[in-house]
Amino acid sequence: MRYYQLQEPHYAAPRIWSGTYRVERRWGLPGIECPECHQTWSDFRSYPAVDVSHLTGRKELEDGWPRPYAEYVRLAERVRPFCPPDVVLTPGSMFGPLHGTARGRFGPLTLVSIWGVLVREDLLQTLQAEGIRGIVPVRPEFKKAPSPALWELHLLSGGRLYPDGRFPPPPALPCSVCGWQDLSAYFSSRVELSSLPADLDVFHLVDAPLRILATERFVEIAQSCGASDVVFKEVETEPPSHHA
Ligand SMILES: [Zn+2]
After folding, report:
1. Residue 171 pLDDT more than 80?
2. Rounded to the nearest whole angstrom, what is the distance from the C-alpha of residue 167 to the centroid of ligand 1?
3. Ligand 1 centre and the CA of 40: distance in Å?
4. Ligand 1 mean position, distance from CA 79 (Å)
5. What is the CA(98)–ligand 1 centre distance, in A?
6. Mind listing the pLDDT tens digit for each residue in 25-74?
7. What InterPro entries has UniProt attached to this entry (predicted)?
8. Calpha distance 145→204 (Å, rounded)
9. In DSSP terms, which residues pair with 153 in a beta bridge?
10. How far is the CA of 154 from the centre of ligand 1 (A)?
């Protein structure tokens, strides 16, 4: 099975579609200041299907500025009961549908900067009809909904980067308190083959959630619905996978 990373085209490359958007998410866990490793970080993991709109004190989730680690832990514990068990919570995780505006015409697949993936309704229906795994559609809250409709995909975390070893010393272990890890040793973007999820066709990497990966089947179906302003870059795995 081949895997592809979904990427936005080079900023100067011509676009096929006129669609533009301005969106954000209402709620999220704060970034942290770690008492152990002294890093200040957020990883901007998006979980649109996690609904915290009824959580008491959700106002505290409206400001993503870094806070002391204990504060982050307290808020993460309050969000946890609202999450499916396979949701990985990290500092900066964000919840609920996108809201904002979308204008113009959109292709079958659209990458929404740091936020995730939008699929056009015809592609969503085709993915579902073909039994593509890991498809959890969430309707964004657009002031004026585009036509055809766009849906966001709620992505689960799966797969890990492979340490390249090109930059000795070998990669430091994650921080024992907050889990922060120096990924500068992961220069090559290779992914550990054994870490790839067997039950998902589209997901974000556990340790690099802004990298969205999809299987060959997902990509073929997306392309069968027409061209998108998305670059599909084949992912190198370690060890290399053998294509039959
Ligand atoms: Zn730490």
Report:
1. no
2. 22
3. 8
4. 21
5. 29
6. 999 999 999 999 999 999 999 999 999 999 999 999 998 889 999 999 99
7. Gmx_para_CXXCG (IPR011750)
8. 26
9. 137
10. 27
- Mean pLDDT across 211-218: 97
Residue 34 CA to ligand 1 center (angstroms) comes to 5
> Which tokens sit at 127?
């993915």
Mean of all residue pLDDT scores within the chain: 92
Å from CA of 72 to ligand 1 middle: 12
What pLDDT, in 10s, does the model give residues 173-202? 889 999 888 776 666 678 999 999 999 999
105 Cβ neighbours under 8 A, 6+ residues apart? 17, 18, 19, 146
Query: How far is C-alpha 50 from the geometric centre of its chain's CA atoms?
Result: 14
114: CA distance to ligand 1 center in Å? Answer: 23
- Direct distance between the N- and C-terminal alpha carbons of the chain, in angstroms, rounded to an integer: 8
Rounded CA-CA distance 143/233 in Å is 33
